[in-house]
What we know:
This is T9SS C-terminal target domain-containing protein. By secondary structure, the protein is mainly beta. The chain is 10% helix and 33% strand. The chain has a 26-stranded parallel β-sheet that branches. The protein has a two-stranded antiparallel ribbon with strand order 10-11. It has a two-stranded antiparallel sheet with strand order 29-30. A hairpin with a 7-residue loop joins strand 29 and strand 30.
Amino acid sequence: MKSLAQIMCLFLLIIGNVYSQQEKGIIGSNNWLRNWTDFKPNQKDYGEPTQILTGNITQDTKLTKRDVYLLLGSVFVTNNATLTIEPGTVVLGDYASKASLTISKGAKIVAEGTVTDPIIFTSNKSVKRPGDWGGIIILGDAPINRFGSGSAASYYPNLTGVNYANTNYGGNNDTSNSGTLKFVRIEYAGKRISRELYFNGLLLASVGSGTTIENIMVSHSAGDSYSIWGGNINLTKAVSFKSNGSDFKFNYGTRSNIKNSLAIRSPYLSSDYGSKCIEIKSFDNKGEFDFSKKNTYVKAQNLTFINDSENLEADIKMNLVKEAVYIGQNAKLEMDKSVISGFNPAVVLNDGIQINQNNLEEIAFTDMYFHSCNGNIFVENNSNNDDLENWYGNSAFFNVYSKSDNTETFIDIKNEKLPDYRLRINKIIASNEVDVDLIEDK
């Protein structure tokens, strides 16, 4: 009986270890990318548009699957109206007019696709390229840490006086509801506005927690895929695929959660300012930061960040690969059960952050899987990361380090039509020791 008990304990230990390994990164008993995502969207032809959307939508309006819509110029949903979009509806963003869709403060969008019938926003060009059209902007009345309220007016070329008020955002309603986005794809957005400014695939400014954002895929954006300014949102099952800009950018005092989400980067795509998988900041310019208001605080769980390099070592030598995670001053990040694979290094902290216990307690990495990164956690412009490695390498944080080929690490990364980016079971070696080979050249 004693022998049987020992066997059972060993069995339970193995099962528990397998489960703990599988729960890192994106999770699900099935591949939740199936059916609603598209990793080769340039091959789709949705036909000629049958309806045109232009100007201001000032009353409740419904878009139906039977029509293909052309988004022409800067389209605003205003006057507390609700724009409802049926599952399977296709909206084409016009290239020539820098088309964009803005849900103004007080208005709502209800775009609820289904797993087999997603809603699609894409380019109207036959040969699609990143930055063909603007993107989707949602403006709410949740708090932001800038002085006064904000304006997104710089995103609109040829903005007329009547619409300036429709570009404002910010308020005091943490739980405000700007609607629902579910099973939605946003493709080839991020139109360039000026030398330094691009649209984002999806910009959420002062959007409150009453808004539902889940099962969204932003692919081939020339700007950032997701940009969150202030507000209080929950992002679930969000996908960013081969963006030129950053994948997830949180700024201006947002208090947000992101979980079970994925970013796939290419070493050959990046903005002039360097693109990250996730960027956590409280401000861009300290002069606009109201210190009496809340700092940015992001809780991130079960994320998978992958740099899709065929030859990681060569791409690093050519300076094509940057860090996956960037954390600015006065910003707090709690990151848990996530995978960072193939970056240079995994994490960079702003050089204004002093390395002491108080600051490091604001930046937590627990149950992480650092895979094939050229170093793990560094301060910007500083090649000595001994203090950080000693802190985050402590066994109490349960962080794991490994080096292997991506095809051996993820279930089906090479499948061009339907990849599976979940971790393979039993591919994580439970080691809390930093792989010196990975950081010696940093």
